[in-house]
């Protein structure tokens, strides 16, 4: 699955969730939801690193939480970019990968 296919699949899931729960996905919603998910990723990382309060999770459960929250952040970056007509593949190639070629 390439990035555009992943974006469309994530969009479908997100739209279904929004329809089911009556959520209006506005420009504000996309950025605020991303911020919420980044906060949850930080919390998962802190738990895994032993820097958060004990939540009764095993190490594998903490690792799974980090993986789940990482996926949420990626999905919401894809959604935000799609909402603002950003071609992420082109943007990454321009911003990051062009520097790799000059090394």
UniProtKB/TrEMBL annotation:
<dbReference type="InterPro" id="IPR004518">
    <property type="entry name" value="MazG-like_dom"/>
</dbReference>
<protein>
    <submittedName>
        <fullName>MazG nucleotide pyrophosphohydrolase domain-containing protein</fullName>
    </submittedName>
</protein>
<feature type="domain" description="NTP pyrophosphohydrolase MazG-like">
    <location>
        <begin position="30"/>
        <end position="93"/>
    </location>
</feature>
<dbReference type="Pfam" id="PF03819">
    <property type="entry name" value="MazG"/>
</dbReference>
């Amino acid at each position: 699955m390439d990035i555009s296919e992943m974006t469309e699949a994530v969009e479908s899931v997100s739209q279904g969730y929004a329809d089911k729960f009556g959520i209006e996905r506005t420009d504000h919603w996309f950025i605020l939801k991303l911020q919420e998910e980044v906060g949850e990723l930080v919390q998962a990382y802190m738990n895994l690193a032993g820097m958060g309060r004990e939540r009764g999770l095993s190490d594998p459960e903490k690792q799974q939480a980090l993986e789940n929250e990482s996926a949420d952040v990626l999905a919401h970056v894809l959604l935000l970019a799609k909402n603002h007509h950003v071609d992420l593949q082109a943007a990454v190639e321009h911003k990051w990968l062009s520097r790799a070629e000059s090394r």
